[in-house]
Amino acid sequence: MSSLTDRYLAATLRAVPAPRRAEISSELRAAIEDMIDDRTGAGQDAEAAEREVLTELGQPERLAARYADRRLQLIGPTYYLVWQRVLRLMLATVPGTVGVVVGVLEATVGDDRGRAVGVGITSAFQTAVQIAFWVTLGFAVLERTDTSLNLPEWSVDQLPEGPAERDVRLTDTCASVAMLLLTLAFLPWQHFQPWVSDTDGDRIPLLDPALWSSWLPFLAAVLVASLVLEVAKYRAGRWTWPLVAVNAALDLAFAVPVIVLLLTDRLLNPELVRRFDWLRTDGHLDTVARVTVVVVAAITVWDVAENIVKARRHHA
Amino acid sequence: MSEEILRTHLQELRRGTAVVASLVALRRPDYGYALLQHLAAHGFPVDANTLYPLLRRLEEQGLLTSEWNTEESRPRKFYRTSDEGETVLARLLDDLAAVQTSVAGLIEGDHR
Q: Which residues in chain A (44-73) have CB-CB distances under 8 A to chain B?
């Protein structure tokens, strides 16, 4: 027995389940010898015939996979779509969250802002790599153990509602969320890190500090509710009438207190008004208040009207 | 039409016929390489690395029985179509005939 055939058999049998090794070995050896004999019988050189036969049988691992009925793929069609969906969902949410949380923690513990950003990005990247590895490994194991996930069969009820193209785009939602977060952050920021100082060098908050025990928590709550609404809207993919109604209610809940506070001179910090002579002369304060009221009212009316138009267009 | 596309379609069409051909041919017991040559001679060229694992799988499914023949110079495993194999083969042949009838009907434009 020539060594090439022995090596081929050894390489093939290594990848075949042990209980069947002996039988496959004798059968495959006989088959290879038959094939070689057939070629040498036709006048071919024995060595060349052996090479040709083994080449025809192909890569030992591939042949073994056929014997063992094993799939030569990491994740097959059964799990591919689930794997893809789980991976996308997790990569879209977890690394970003981890990065922000770690970065913020680092920024509060240490003083180096740049370092905090670096640490945040690194941990987000590491999290993404970990997720990709473990999710893929999990599905590859499922594939190999033939474990059934008992996933519900696809049904037409799972079709996304409405047209395939979204009325609510991710970029719009991100922009709105960013605006809301900035507004939300502005409330404590103007109190603790204001840019105006009084004559003693003490900082003067922009808004009346007395409002912290009344309207400011309420406004902050409205902003948080608006954030939730943005997420709900994105999930729905379009404006529905309940969403329009809630949005209008939240718009009004924000605008009406602001307007009333402005008109009754209770929004701005009295200290601040005293600090700026210009505000106190010639009714400038009233002008500023009136212009702000008009702008707030216009934005609110515009927002509500725009949403009604979008909802109508969708339901038409 | 590229050769590659044609080859893929022919391969798709041929897939499965190796099972039918093997079950028919093995009504008379035979061993792997002899079966391969027998099939090739009758217009069923099957790759060796497809046929040998296929025979084992059909045996595990109970469609073939096997017996080692040690009388000759080289011990060989002889396969034979089992009773269960015959039943399955009958169904497969029926279906093959049905496919042929359907294709013929389509070609003639006979929609019944």
A: 56-58, 62-63, 66-67, 69
Q: Note whether residue B8 is domain-resident.
A: no
Tokens matching residue B81: 């179509």
Looking at beta carbons, which residues of chain B come within 8 Å of A27? 32, 52, 56, 76-77
For A66, the closest of B31, B53, B74 (CB atoms) is: B53
What are the phi and psi torsion angles at B31 (to 5°)? Answer: -105, 165
Chain A residues in contact with B49 (beta carbon < 8 A): 56-58, 62-63, 66
Taking an 8 Å cut-off on Cβ atoms, the answer to whether A34 and B31 are in contact is yes
Which of B31, B49, B76 is closest, CB to CB, to A63?
B49
Domain holding B43: CATH number? 1.10.10.10
Range of the domain at B28: 18-108
Cβ contacts of residue B37 below 8 Å, gap of 6+?
A38
B48 → closest Cβ in A23, A26, A35: A35
- Work out the minimum CA distance from A1 to partner chain B, whole angstroms: 13
pLDDT per position in chain A (316 positions), as tens?
A: 458 999 999 999 998 888 888 888 999 999 999 999 999 988 889 889 999 999 999 999 999 999 888 888 899 888 899 999 999 999 988 898 888 888 888 877 777 777 888 888 999 999 999 999 999 999 999 888 877 777 788 888 888 776 556 667 788 888 888 888 888 888 877 777 656 666 666 777 878 888 887 788 888 889 999 989 888 888 887 788 888 899 999 999 999 988 888 888 888 888 777 777 777 777 777 888 888 889 989 999 998 898 888 888 776 6
**Nearest beta carbon to residue B75 from set A30, A38, A58:** A30
Burial of A140 (0-12, 13-18, 19+ CB in 10 A): middle
pTM equals: 0.58
B87 within a domain of the structure (yes/no): yes
How close does chain A come to B31, measured CA to CA in Å?
8
Count of structural domains, chain B: 1
N-term to C-term CA, chain B: 33
Cβ neighbours for A5, distance < 8 A, ≥ 6 positions apart: A29, A32, A33, A36, A50, A54
- The sheet that has B30-31: what strands, in order across it? B30-31, B76-81, B64-69
